[in-house]
Amino acid sequence: MTESTNNQAAVSIPVSSKALAIFIGELLGQRRNTEKVFRGYSFSIDLNWLLNLHLIIDQRIASQNDGSLADFKATIYFDSGRIHNIYGFESFNTYRDISNEICTAVELAWTYLVRFPSKTLPEKQEINFKITVDEKYKERKLQSRHSFFKDYIRIGADAGSFARTEIAFSDFTWGEDIQSHVARYIESSFHR
């Protein structure tokens, strides 16, 4: 470690320009995207449903590839405008909301580093899930004041309610496989 003139520390790692370019390119070098939006469904989910979604994704990646969870973030939106950002899956796994506020949306974001058989270095793969309620849901829940994580969220097939998955990937078959696996879980829980 060296110290620069502005009292900031720096780390110097000897690496060839070509090796660094390959590393950065493979780490950041996706980029294909697939997205699926779920509208016209009614669905009931709770914290356990979201935890199961994580387990399904994590197990699928572990069973097929040399992959590891590099980052996880949950964002929880409430009717008052309050937003909770939770970093790390363990923190999300132990999260419990004790307020009487109504949860109106949840976003989950996973970043995995996956090593594919044809690549020398792991590559970044991203999975995002979002579920949002409609205004009518908020009006219905205002009377009961149940929080999303204390009670099931019951959303009718109103136009404003939706769930969405988005996968950013570097290996086409991996991305399509994860998307279809996640979609099957979602569709098995949602009803028309």
Write the layout of secondary structure elements.
Elements lengths: L1 E2 L5 E2 L6 H12 L3 E7 L3 E4 L1 H18 L1 E13 L4 E5 L1 H5 L9 E13 L7 E10 L2 H10 L8 E3 L6 E8 L2 H18 E2 L1
Antiparallel strand pairs: 1-2, 3-10, 4-9, 4-11, 5-6, 5-7, 7-8, 8-10
Provide a descriptive summary of the structure in words:
This protein is of the alpha+beta class and 192 residues long. The chain has one domain (32-191). Helices cover 33% and strands 36% of the residues. The chain contains five helices and eleven strands. The strands form three sheets. The protein has a six-stranded antiparallel sheet. A hairpin with a 5-residue loop joins β1 and β2. α2 (47-64) packs antiparallel against α5 (172-189). The longest helix has 18 residues, at 47-64. It is globular, with a radius of gyration of 20 Å. Mean pLDDT is 80; it is low at 150-157.
